[in-house]
Amino acid sequence: MDSFRVTGGCVLDGEVETSGAKNAVLPMMAATMLADGVSEITNAPHLKDMKTMSDLLRVIGCRISGSEHVLAIDTRGANHLEAPYELVKTMRASFYVLGPLVARFGRARVSLPGGCAWGPRPVDLHLKGLEALGATVTVTHGYVEAACTGRLKGGVFHFPISSVGATANVLMAATLAEGTSVLHNAAVEPEVDATVDYLLSMGADIQGRGTRTLTIRGKEKLMPGNGRTIADRIEAGTFLAGALMTRGRVKTTNMEPEHQGALLDVFRRMGADVQVGKDWVQVDARNRELKPVDIVTLPFPGFPTDMQAQLMAVLTTVPGISVVQDTIYTDRFMHVAELERLGADIRLRGDTATIHGGSKLSSAPVMASDLRASAAMVLAALVAEGVTDISRIYHLDRGYEDFESKLSNLGGKIERLHGQSA
Ligand code: EPZ
Prior knowledge:
Layout: E1 3-7, E2 13-17, H1 22-31, E3 38-42, H2 48-60, E4 63-65, E5 71-74, E6 82-83, H3 85-88, H4 98-105, E7 107-111, H5 124-132, E8 136-140, E9 143-147, E10 156-158, H6 164-174, E11 180-184, H7 190-201, E12 205-207, E13 213-217, E14 226-228, H8 233-245, E15 249-253, H9 263-269, E16 273-276, E17 280-284, E18 294-297, H10 308-315, E19 320-326, H11 334-341, E20 346-349, E21 352-357, E22 366-367, H12 371-383, E23 387-391, H13 394-397, H14 403-409, E24 413-417
Parallel strand pairs: 2-15, 3-14, 6-7, 10-11, 18-19, 22-23
Antiparallel strand pairs: 1-23, 1-24, 3-5, 4-5, 7-9, 8-9, 11-13, 12-13, 15-17, 16-17, 19-21, 20-21
Helix pairs in contact: 1-2, 1-7, 4-6, 5-6, 6-7, 8-10, 8-12, 10-12, 11-12
The structure holds ligand EPZ.
Residues 22-23, 26, 92-93, 121-126, 161, 163-166, 187, 191, 305-306, 328-329, 371-372, 399 line the site of ligand EPZ.
């Protein structure tokens, strides 16, 4: 397993181009199975999760080709309507194929995703939403079997909580249902809008883009899709957090600033200078005394849970008391113990971490536990005194393209140790 070796004392200063969004390209790839033919996706990032989704689509019978950052997905051979545990357990987003498969073929068998590093990841809302469209859903031996006679039927479903994945799954299924569906309290993350846009490129009839009420008039058939992946707001946010971490300056380009939601306000409240352009954001924390802040993660446009670990790493070096509460995943705190190994002073109670900031971090061997925690450990290691080895960085490769070269270009001293666990 690869590991990262990071030398402390870095001050990031530079520009970094944002790649396509992992959490947009994955539902877009699943959506291609709603049509018969060759769909195209551009600005697709090269990520491990994308490879996993490609492997899954191949198991189903699709053919995938593409160059540089272009994906061509030929669904004309799709006939194996199953997503096996071996793939689904490595990537929860595999569950996105359930809706498209049952909508297009009338049945599907998808493994339950199981938990992840930080705890259970239920899929009950995906299943209830599909049942609202007339699917018969059973769960046996760790697999979900969904079926319908003829087409799914348009229905009304009210999401009790905001769920990105369940919204995408049920939305995709509704585009081929017979009649009209209305989804209430739908998620409004940019990646959901991106999924809507891709479905519209396939000829789907969807009203309410960007709102919590989506009205879908089902079609008998859709056309192959053609769309560009939006920029990865979490990748951009991670590099911008690096400017605060190292008291440097970072400009992220080729992105959509409006997708940063509450994140930029938090950076400003901490005392950083934040400039915003049409397709770029610059955060400058040079020679600034950063201030502690309290953070509560919320659905978009609130503070994103996917930036919680990265901001916690920054706050461990900001003198004063900061409080971080994760209301989306109340146990997403695997990074706390690892940050403490670097000298951070954090008290964890339930879904809330209290950070006694101002610690001088010092190097120690640490472990990546999940995708965003990995990024948090790299950020902390950039300022920890000494050389820090971070093992299990396969977690990070799931969601960050060319991470170490992008960070090196910003001034980070990071190298990948191939096949060596630190
Ligand atoms: C998506 O996961 C993202 N993944 C996650 O990013 C992100 O953290 C999450 O949305 C929240 O923004 C992808 O898009 C591939 P949810 P998803 O359904 O769809 C509960 C990353 O780091 N829930 O919006 O699985 C759930 O437990 C990853 O890139 C149910 O109770 O998240 C959570 O508390 C990590 N029942 C809340 O809803 C369900 O059926 C929000 O989860 C589904 C979800």
